[in-house]
Amino acid sequence: MFDLLVKGGTLPDGSIADIAITGDRIAALGQLDAPAVRTIDASGDLVSPPFVDPHFHMDATLSYGLPRVNASGTLIEGISLWGELREIATVDEMVERAVRYCDWAASLGLLAIRTHVDTTPDHLRGVDAMLEVKRRVAPYLELQLVAFPQDGLYRAKNGRGNLIRALDRGVDIVGGIPHFERTMEEGTESVKDVARIAADRGLMLDIHCDETDDPMSRHVETMAAEVTRHGLGVRAAGSHLTSMHSMDNYYVSKLLPLIAESEMTVIPNPLINITLQGRHDTYPKRRGLTRVKEMQALGITVGWGQDCVLDPWYSLGTGDMLDVAFMGMHVAQMTHPAEMARCFEMVTQTNARIMNLEGYGLKVGDLASLVVIDADNPTEALRLRPDRLFVVSRGKVIVERERNDARLSIAGRPGSVRRRFGG
Ligand code: FE2
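That is the input. Now the predicted structure with fe (ii) ion docked in place:
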């Protein structure tokens, strides 16, 4: 007798399978006719491994308007506003907002998040808050914490020392922000420094790298070289890489093979990059997204990150990784059927690889975490961003929702509407 049986769902690869769950693991897969304590009918629905977000800022989330809104809409004003907010926000407030966000995320099938935690202030209240959030959500959501020197590893007073203190308190991953250091040279040195810290401590590395429109911001070159030198490979991620949008094509033809050689991964954040970049331009106005398709063509692992929801940098957001993939698909012009399908894969399998998640997937023996989506296939999921009918986390049903078809009464033709295309 299985604990849970998810019957007849369509998997992302188009195959139809029953999924049997015992405890927190997938016990069997295929055409199954076995009894279970509970059975979910997923016939006609998409059954996917859960959504994964490899780039977020949970210490700032759901704080939109505090202490006031970002009037210029720029990255720099956002950083300045956050600098004020982190001095007045209490640990309890940050925990409450972050847990509320995690509940939003879980309700949308987002069950693993990597969040950067600002380690700039000496009080490290954000670190204490996020360590507490990680403990609280652990039963249903995997949270990875990055020690993030928001105001600069060297530019901020005690920047490096506070990053080390955060790691000593249990933060999982080493972060950086080379383009925000005072000089190119200090940016370069900061990349070497944080790569060495990650290698020495056996930790993963995730650097906010070249989040600027300056085409001469080339810290990703140093990062790729250091990742290769230390053999960090897929345990290192370059976040944003927006300067690459504006770089000289000849230089990029040298750069991308270096990134591929290093096996580091890449995390663009399309909702935020499209909003914040190009603010100093008139027209043509740059869109600020890194070169996604070009990197993928060379075999580089590129996912999609969310970055922000309702905070000093972004005034919207829902926690839905389908929104993120939808925006990414548009800005990167990934409109071929294979590219649209890849955009769905980027917010599931690819992001799981970027986060080095254990037991992720829908194979026998994987963690029994999945989401039942009111769609026929991944591309339809992207188009509709529809309801998540069930979310299962480690064998437990944590979310269930009624199918929400619209009832019509139009010109004497009562009926109901499902927005599916061909389904
Ligand atoms: Fe970020």
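The longest helix spans residues 184-201.
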